[in-house]
Design goal:
The protein is an alpha+beta fold. The chain has helices at 3-12, 27-39, 60-76, 129-139, 159-169, 171-178, 184-190, 201-207, 211-214, 245-259, 279-292, 324-328, 337-346, 355-362, and strands at 18-21, 43-47, 78-79, 85-91, 94-101, 110-111, 117-120, 123-126, 194-195, 198-199, 220-225, 235-241, 262-264, 273-275, 301-305, 309-315, 367-371, 376-382.
């Protein structure tokens, strides 16, 4: 975008495709502007221009901070993420930032606070239920795990792992594939693991050779803190778990087995022990975090061991109208339908919404928090006090 076009926009004033901001500091407010443009016809946000069209400009520190804020907000506070273009433009010896937002291809967009907005003249407004229903019907919105990963293809598939899954899950298809009666690409497409010749997010996370190559934000962060909060000066153990979902699950369970205490359940030379927290509880919660997390949020699952508790944190609040009370009663909504379907065969997971009920039956002290502000779902398990 060139200076003459920007000057013409400033001269015309704010409208449905042009918005002025003297400065931006709040990611939530910025997300609202980006969402409104994306749900309408697109537009340009001019930062460094006052509401009355006066060019106030930005200094070097402001430019660096705003560029980072725009990038982070577009990927973390807009769902699904968008990819605006930013240009630094000099007008009358003052520098401003022009943020160009395209008309969205995956409408409707929402903020991380759950607001669906669109432009209304030079202002913005919340979208009506009728508008939302129409846009959802028109967009045929893909779930996050259905989206194709650019630059990936079938050669990035761990075929040994996939064939082992197919052999156990559908022997007839496995035999037809093995004897050349079916094409590998066709089977993958039918399962939602390949789309437009690219691995989908589900295909990469479950059967990718190197999943982190195409999905670098989706891993498990494990930390054993030497205290009761994350601000302690020392941690006892730390591990970053990458790879397939099965590898992340196995690594997470191994970390917990290594960092939780074992309690004797019998006496003598060959005394048996148990983990201080039932391993069935740990397994259910870790699977839940991997399968049901929000993959539109570029963040890791977190396994935090403190002196007094264990926390498992999943990116994303509960979907749709789910509440903590509803999931405790066994109600579930499948945010990632392909993962939900296939992980029944690759993880210790039933997929019937019974996991949380089972956890509470085994350990009623487990507490669940649906944090709307932090956009995360947190499971907290008390640890037994050291005597």
């Amino acid at each position: 975008m060139q200076a003459p076009e920007i000057l013409e926009r400033i001269h015309r004033g704010e409208d449905s495709t042009t918005q002025f901001k003297q400065d931006v500091t709040d990611s939530n407010r910025l997300a609202e502007e980006l969402v409104a443009f994306s749900n309408a016809e697109g537009g340009v946000l001019l930062i460094g221009v006052a509401d009355d069209g006066i060019i106030v400009g930005l200094d070097e520190l402001q430019i660096g901070r705003i560029n980072q804020l725009v990038s982070n907000t577009a990927s973390e506070n807009v769902k699904p993420p968008i990819y605006p273009l930013t240009n630094i433009i000099t007008l009358h010896a003052q520098r401003i930032i022009a943020v160009s937002v395209r008309k969205g291809d995956s409408k409707p967009y929402q903020t991380s606070k759950g607001f669906y907005l669109t432009k209304s003249g030079s202002d913005k407004r919340r979208m009506s239920q009728d508008e939302l229903r129409r846009l959802f019907a028109e967009s045929h919105r893909l779930f996050a795990d259905e989206e194709a990963l650019e630059n990936s293809d079938v050669t990035d598939l761990n075929t040994e792992s996939f064939y082992a899954f197919l052999d156990a899950d559908n022997r007839d298809v496995y035999e037809e594939l093995k004897h050349g009666k079916l094409a590998l690409e066709s089977v993958l497409q039918n399962l939602g693991l390949l789309r437009d010749k690219h691995l989908t997010l589900a295909g990469n996370l479950i059967f990718g050779k190197t999943p982190h190559r195409f999905s670098p934000s989706f891993y498990v962060d494990c930390v054993h803190f030497d205290g009761d909060d994350v601000d302690v000066d020392h941690f006892i153990a730390k591990s970053t778990l990458k790879g397939s979902l099965r590898q992340q699950y196995d690594g997470g369970m191994q970390f917990l087995q290594n960092n939780l205490r074992r309690i004797p359940i019998s006496e003598g030379f060959n005394a048996q022990t148990r983990l201080e927290i039932d391993e069935r509880v740990l397994g259910e919660l870790l699977v839940n975090a991997l399968v049901h997390r929000d993959y539109y949020i570029q963040s890791s699952v977190k396994v935090f061991v403190f002196n007094n508790r264990l926390e498992l944190i999943s990116p994303g609040k509960l979907p749709n109208s789910l509440t903590v009370e509803k999931i405790k009663s066994g109600l579930s909504v499948h945010r990632n339908p392909i993962l939900n379907s296939i992980c029944k065969s690759v993880l210790p997971y039933s997929g019937y919404g019974s996991g949380i009920k089972r956890v509470l039956r085994l350990n009623p002290a487990v507490t669940f928090y649906n944090d709307l502000d932090k956009e995360e779902f947190r499971c907290v398990i008390p640890r037994e006090a050291i005597v």
